[in-house]
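re the bet — no i am not wrong, look at it urself. input seq straight from the record:
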Amino acid sequence: MLKLTFNQIAIAPNAFKGTLTAAEAAGCIERGMKRALPGASFISAPIADGGEGTAAAVVRATGGRWVRCQAADPLGRRIHARFGLTGDGRTAVVEMASSSGLALLKARERNPLLATTRGTGELILAALDRRVTRLLIGIGGSATNDGGMGMARALGARFFDARGGELPEGGGSLMRLARIDARGLDPRLRQITVEVACDVDNPLFGPRGAACVYGPQKGATPAMVRRLDAGLKRLAAVIKQDLGMEVAMAPGAGAAGGLGAGLIAFLNGQMRSGVDMVMDAVDLRAQLAGCDLVITGEGRLDGQTLFGKGPVGVAKVAKELGLPVIGICGSLGADAGKLRGAGIDACFSALEELMPEAQLARCAPGMLERCAEQVARLLALS
């Protein structure tokens, strides 16, 4: 039998959504594997794919820090939010969900006619005050459908109706938009690079647009969806009229309730794959170099993992370095075999028995440790 040696193992999971952060998952996997491979060394490299955990992954990997500040929540209430700064202080990482996210609202409060991205703009403004030269923005988990109007307004843009009055916050007012004055945008925006983590290609409006596809999960009724969609169409027309930019059909323009379009139009944002953006920011290739094996994973591994998810991004880098990859997850889809074609050589589920979702957070760490230990014991036999 061929004897394989695993002297150095990289552990690079995504978050196990709802139960473990990426860093917590990495810690569980390392503890479990050490029990079976006590002589191996481990590199912890938790990652993210542009959504929740993006800032944490970058802050951790670069020896950075958190900056806490006040910002508006989706309904304009003042809350405590934060963004990340890299160790060199040059790059800020903003997760729009920190201030404009759906999770900040109770179910009965969800109303994309009123919800605003102003808080995201306030976080960007606070980052500019730290003299950053690069801004990474994760736009997953939004509660909003305002096309980035609130964000741009916080940074100095103004939005007027036909009578010269300023529009109120929220996507419900965009149907009345007649003019945009962007002259007041913070001039520091022209001096920075803005990269936007976006793994969808939805246009701004229409059947595949922000309102029609994502509006219902944010609390929009069919009548509200029609109103919101018409508002985003109007926004695109006025952006073209006053800013000379065509954003309606730009891939990702419809992400986060049209915030994608707003970031393109007002910040010259460049859309990037979320996992690629994060892997570059944490220099994953350098972290994996010199390893013999890579362990990745997230809450569920299945055919959908192929579409821009973190584990596949990790596997791509690992395979370029000639490294084997094992995936450990909470639940494993019947079509997980498809992942072998994407570089994940074997997959294992940590779930030991069916249990109510409420118990998962309590039981997940132990199950993940035990699964990682069994994987390591299998490796020790090779």
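see?? The radius of gyration is 22 Å. told u. also The chain has twelve helices and 15 strands. so pay up
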